[in-house]
């Protein structure tokens, strides 16, 4: 045990490729104890938007989202403040997922959350005509990425309710990351696999000057048509104009557009993040969807870094569609995040369930802080690392003041 260990030390091993695979979402000084985003970038061209020089919060269009009437499926869903954890030490024998045990954990957690049978629980969220998007987290493939076996269990449940496989889409923001993590058509036959965008890793890492794989002849990103320019999160922060930024973020300027997959095709969303940190904050349910559903995000890493995890999910395209959140804590990571770091990964053998992603993140934040302390990490417990969750409660999106955790063991 290393006493007094500081989060993300100079030897944390986060290389340039890992930085971009993590979405560049390390916080621009907010969660890194003063280390800025540029400290991780390999060259001036690769730097994201600098942290604002003042603490004045940029204006956003959150009021536009709040004006839209809510539906029966709007966040925080039918079980506000309720979180269920199921645990079985046999889930990951020798660090390898045991599919049958994971499927049993999924059924136990789901039925406890809904107080309904496994079959009846489907009807609380879906009908056979829905198109369901499963948002995974592919960062850290094989180490801390969303377990394929957990996604198998979710798909089997959807099928048992009458939803055809062709109506299921496993998705993330980056297409290449899905492939790296094993989310392929061969592994999930009959199920859609979609990234909202592509990114040329070789160009991003400076290995080639050829941008033709991602840059169209008219100067726009080839993934630009995948985003709905009529549905957006606006913030008064400019995205950089350089090609490296455009390669990673599709657009610059002040608009972060939602993917057309969400705005035009999906009718419901299941969010399956993983249990990990981002400095002294967490990178779990709300960040998985908040930074995964829109483009042009690095510009937001200053004073809006955690608020994005509230304001993006407040828009109806997520607020009214994301009906279930399942945090994969089969193997968790207590430090070095949001990228993978094997020396901080450990077997937790748990899965968390909630319809309320903000209550879920509050519970998991507290558990992660306990773990970090137990491992000798110097933890900053400033309220700013959870204030965004209380902000969500004020907006009526979650119940975080006194979340109720039900802990079940096999």
Summarize the structure.
With 410 residues, the protein is α/β, with parallel strands linked by helices. The chain has 14 helices and 14 strands.
Describe the structure.
This protein has 410 residues and is of the alpha/beta class. The chain has one domain (12-52, 68-409). The chain has 14 helices and 14 strands. The protein has helices at 16-21, 62-66, 99-114, 118-125, 148-160, 175-180, 201-204, 243-249, 260-265, 285-290, 308-311, 316-319, 357-374, 384-394, and strands spanning 5-6, 82-87, 132-136, 168-174, 192-197, 227-239, 253-259, 268-272, 277-278, 281-282, 322-333, 345-354, 377-378, 404-409. The strands form 4 sheets. Strands 5-4-3-8-11-12-2-14 form an 8-stranded mixed beta sheet. A two-stranded parallel sheet has the order 1-13. α5 links the parallel β3 (132-136) and β4. The protein is globular, with a radius of gyration of 20 Å.
Uncertain residue segments:
1-17, 23-53
Terminal residue distance = 29 Å
Average pLDDT works out at 89
Number of helices: 14
Structural class: alpha/beta
- Which strand order does the major sheet show? 5-4-3-8-11-12-2-14
Helix % is: 25-40%
Radius of gyration from the alpha-carbon trace, in angstroms: 20 Å
Work out the number of β strands. 14
The succession of helices and strands, N to C, reads EHHEHHEHEHEHEHEHEEEHHHEEHEHE
Tell me, briefly, the overall form.
globular
How much of the sequence lies in strands comes to 15-25%
Main beta sheet strand tally, sense and closure: 8 strands, mixed
């Amino acid at each position: 045990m290393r006493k007094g260990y500081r989060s993300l030390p100079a030897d944390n091993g986060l290389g340039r490729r890992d930085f971009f695979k993590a979405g560049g979402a390390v916080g621009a000084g907010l969660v890194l104890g003063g280390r800025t985003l540029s400290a991780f970038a390999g060259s001036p061209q690769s730097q994201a938007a600098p942290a604002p020089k003042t603490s004045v919060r940029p204006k956003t269009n959150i009021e536009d989202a709040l004006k839209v009437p809510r539906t029966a499926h709007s966040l925080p869903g039918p079980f506000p403040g309720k979180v269920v954890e199921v645990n079985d030490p046999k889930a990951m024998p020798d660090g390898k997922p045991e599919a049958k045990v994971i499927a049993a954990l999924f059924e136990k957690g789901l039925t406890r959350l809904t107080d309904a049978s496994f079959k009846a629980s489907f009807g609380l969220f879906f009908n056979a005509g829905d198109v369901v998007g499963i948002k995974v987290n592919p960062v850290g493939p094989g180490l801390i990425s969303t377990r394929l076996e957990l996604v198998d269990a979710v798909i089997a449940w959807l099928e048992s309710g009458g939803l055809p496989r062709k109506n299921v889409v496993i998705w993330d923001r980056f297409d290449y990351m899905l492939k790296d993590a094993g989310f392929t058509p061969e592994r999930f036959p009959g199920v859609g696999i979609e990234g909202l965008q592509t990114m040329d890793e070789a160009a991003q890492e400076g290995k080639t000057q050829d941008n033709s794989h991602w840059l169209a002849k008219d100067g726009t990103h080839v993934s630009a048509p995948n985003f709905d320019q009529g549905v957006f999160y606006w913030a008064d922060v400019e995205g950089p104009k350089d090609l490296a930024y455009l390669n990673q973020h599709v657009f610059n300027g002040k608009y972060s557009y939602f993917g057309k997959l969400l705005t035009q095709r999906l009718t419901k969303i299941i969010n399956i993040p993983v249990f990990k940190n981002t400095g002294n904050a967490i990178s779990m349910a709300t960040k998985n969807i908040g930074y995964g559903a829109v483009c042009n995000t690095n510009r937001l890493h200053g004073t809006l870094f955690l608020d994005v995890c509230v304001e993006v999910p407040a828009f109806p395209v997520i607020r009214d569609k994301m009906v279930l959140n399942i945090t994969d804590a089969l193997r968790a990571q207590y430090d070095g995040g949001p990228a993978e770091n094997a020396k901080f990964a450990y077997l937790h053998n748990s899965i968390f369930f909630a319809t309320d992603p903000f209550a879920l993140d509050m519970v998991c934040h507290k558990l992660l802080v306990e773990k970090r302390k137990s491992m000798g990490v110097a933890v900053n417990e400033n309220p700013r690392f959870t204030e965004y969750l209380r902000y969500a409660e004020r907006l009526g999106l979650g119940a975080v003041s006194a979340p109720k955790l039900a802990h079940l063991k096999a």
